[in-house]
Specification:
The chain is α/β, with parallel strands linked by helices and about 725 residues long. Helix 5 (about 130-140) runs parallel beside helix 9 (about 200-220), helix 11 (about 265-280) runs parallel beside helix 12 and helix 18 (about 465-475) packs antiparallel against helix 19 (about 515-530).
Length: about 725
Amino acid sequence: MKTISFLLLCCLSVVVQASGPIQGLLERIDKGASHKFVIEQVKSPVDFFELDQKGDKVVVRGNSYVSIATGVNWYLKYHAGIHLSWNGMTAKLPAVLPPVKQRERHETSYPYRYDLNYCTFSYSMAFWDWARWEREIDWMALHGINLSLALTGAEAVWKNVLTKLGYTRDEVNDFVAGPGFTAWWLMNNLEGWGGPNPDSWYDKQELLQKKIVRRMREYGIHPVLPGYCGMVPHNAKEKLGLNVSDPGLWCSYRRPAFLQPEDERFEEISSLYYKELTRLYGKSDFYAIDPFHEGGSTQGVNLDAAGKAVMQAMKRANPKAVWVIQAWQANPRVPMIENLTAGDLLVLDLHSECRPQWGDPSSEWYRKDGYGQHGWLYCMLLNFGGNVGLHGKMDALINGFYDAKADARAGQTLRGVGMTPEGIENNPMMYELAMELPWRAERFTHGDWLKDYVRARYGADDEALQQAWQLLGNGIYNSPKDKIQQGTHESVFCARPGLDVYQVSSWSEMKDYYDPQEVMEAARLMASVADNYRGNNNFEYDLVDVLRQALAEKGRLMQKAVAAAYRAGDKELFSMASQRFLRLILLQDELLATRREFRLGTWTEAARSLGNTLEEKSLYEWNARVQITTWGNRTAADRGGLRDYAHKEWNGLLKDFYYMRWQTYFDYLSRTLEGKHPQAPDFYALEEPWTKGTQVYTSQPEGDCVEVAKRIVKEL
């Protein structure tokens, strides 16, 4: 019977010599790679991929381009020992690929695998060009993504809409945020911060978005375009005579106003918005719409009417469209969605691995009825602020997914999985794990999965590397289910200095859950075999990343010694401990200089490259510098709590910004120990000049990462 079914499957298949987007994908991985595969597209009621062999060619069979790309990635990882990752999307394939010895099939009954968070577009993607976006869309396809947020170019839509409503160029720029802060503008949190944007910015983003959605559609990835959520400029009442509500402040920033659904112009303005959006980027089957995000006041708003008005506006644009909404804090408000039709709404359970809202009674954000009749996706947030740092909740992620699948109510409305990080290009292991969940029918252990990952990651089965990763997987990458914190255990190097400093960002909620010595031991194990893996891109990236974490752990311990020496009044010990702490910052800076992924210059160069004039380049670099340091002006940074939210352990930033702050603070403490009465540092006054600085930072790596790591690890 199996033989007959297989023959029937082959009869229904379309055999292609790696054509279309798959050919382009394979050729970008390695020139000539497309000739080493046979691609077969087969109709199927469920998403699936199969690996097979035909002569000396590997067969990848699937029901769609995305399923086929997922199969290619699975083959490369688990048959060829080649792991494509953010730190490397190319590889040298062997002349003859390792054969698939037995046909292998994976399928999923879940229709959606979703990608991205609004914040990702600012914390990671703010200054991307098409070349970087092309690699990312390839990454999406390889990881099974068939539904992705696509916010780029929203500025051009709003420029056109507001212009037609009578706003001037300057008024438009007072509303639209700068490139480093677009995400929070689109989430109705603020207006104008980071601007004003030059006309060329609107044009560039429009052209870039057209390329992005075109490539997504070629693959069969559905772009989730920004829908109309009722947002209008804060002065819309005075300017246009609209009936609006005031959602209040967000971290000291004034939010845009909310257009009341009862206003007779709601239909007109929402229709104008969708007309412009469709004209520029085409019609979509999915729209991201998030009114009242993160604490927006709903006072005076009929939420039932608002939900229906938003839905009706979307349906006028495309009757088949689905509203995609983030479950974060109180959103989506129950009255806004409870009377909407099942199938018209898709909820992103944004933080499933940590604060699920789908109905897990042990969750801090427990919703008794989950999302009612509406479909939802099990999502991993993992990263906040694009912060650098090892972090994961492996067991919580795995078990939470299979628990949700088995739940009598939530399991009936579960539609797939998603990745919703605020920042990417970090912790590649966790994203690999998350996106394999829908393709694995049975629950599995993190330890067994990790063994296969390490072999795939380095193309070798090395005992020292397995030991290192088991330490990491059982410790820093396995935060217990009941531990609530916003991403990584933040590095004290990046914190505003203090004697009792613990977390860096205002809302981290950090708590100790792993042994720092195990991270240091993992770094030593990796350094002990480093000579064997020279030139192995994945190994060298991980070596630097793990040792970076180990140095941060050492720094946290040393900071406690500094505080103890100060409180004891021991000037000699204080001097020795503080100098040791500062040296650790410089060692980390030197280590991170060896990889472009950890260099400030990679970020600032990308920002400046988008400018046509010196003025534009300076504006974009200022956006880049402010976002990762003060985030906002003095009020937003200090009273709003945003300073250091998007801190980064990056070469250049460590030496010129974090080191400067700590050295200033230690000088202040030293003078105090000497009986003087110095004025305490005004940290914002120290930080703001750096955001306006002009020092050039480059993306070019410096030093041999293996040699530097072998030397530095001896100082742990």
